[in-house]
Amino acid sequence: MDKQAFESILHKDILQRDDLITLLGAKGDNLKQLLDHALAVKLEHLDNNIHLRGLVEYSNTCRKNCKYCGLRVQNTKVVRYTVPDDEVLQCARIALEQGYGSMALQSGERTDREFVDGVERVVKAIKQLSGGKLGITLSCGEQSEETYRRWFEAGAHRYLLRIESSTRELYYTIHPHTPEHSFERRLECIDTLLRLGYQTGTGVMVGLPAQTLGHLADDLLFFRSKDVAMVGLGPFIPHPDTPLWELRDQIPSKEERIELTTKMIAALRIMMPEINMVSATANQLLDPQGRERAVLAGANVIMPNLTPNRYREEYLIYPDKANVGDRPEEAYRNLEARMNAINHSILYNEWGDSVAFTKRKQHTKGE
Ligand code: SAM
Ligand code: SF4
After folding, report:
1. pTM exceeds cut of 0.90
2. What is the mean pLDDT of residues 285-302?
3. Atom of ligand 1 nearest to the CA of 239
4. Hey, what domains does the chain have and what are their CATH numbers?
């Protein structure tokens, strides 16, 4: 497209579905215009700071059977674990020492009492150990309102629940059509999290079989309609022990998936300048420069993995051999230099809350 015509889309007050499809299809000079503009919007509204969340892959036990994920209940090759409290607390100590400011606990989905109590207990213990210094994000799937409330009251204040695809039909091509995998229930959970006062994050996988630019544009419109505080977008990576592996020839190439993810991040940064956006680990896996590319397109959050090594090889949502051998402290030692090299800095010892969320809260209080 003519450069001037493309520039005028970038500067529209409200981007419509057709505009978003144009942005997501950008190539060559237009792609550069998109990325440059998204970076400028981020620097204007947020600055060049990167927030860290020390990630603990808390448990790989899952009752669900998502067709894309290596942790699905029918994958009997996985040895199931839950990290004991004392080891989670050891990770919290590392997070404090490294000045990460926040932790994120991610897990398969369980709703039984032992699990719900366990998450509540460990959240309280992290708060106590850190004297409230560590912010806590949870990503433990769909739960009852009561459970979400208990975890919130225990001290978790951010929650990530990706919608995976905001198009119902596409959602059911990647999930079994059963009551445990209900699209409506997923939406309900996101609404509950928003209502309870969590900084709520959602997101999708990019490069799914049969996913079109129209679907992705609708995902962006969905994020805006929910006015979420955070978004996590990452490329889909096929796992050999899942049903979607069969369709691996029907998805875009690695480079196409990472480029498309980058365009999604850039378009969303322009639409929602003040939200937090995570540079997903999957970006890094598909391209050694994937993290930098996501940050330069508008991401402002990175999640260094603190999970003790012996659990990591059993938390393979997608095949990720590179991740398994790293020592937590070493894996991110050069992160600061890498961020400095692209003119970004890491903000230590801060929770790194979403500016969009904080402003909305102040506004509501003032009313
Ligand atoms: N169980 C919780 C849930 O599903 O919300 C949280 C953990 S789950 C492993 C976190 C995210 O991993 C999912 O939301 C999904 O988007 C992503 N994921 C799972 N399998 C994937 C794959 N094969 N490629 C890329 N991302 C994947
Ligand atoms: Fe379980 Fe989450 Fe994986 Fe689905 S994506 S199988 S809920 S861990």
Report:
1. yes
2. 95
3. 23
4. 40-366 (3.20.20.70)
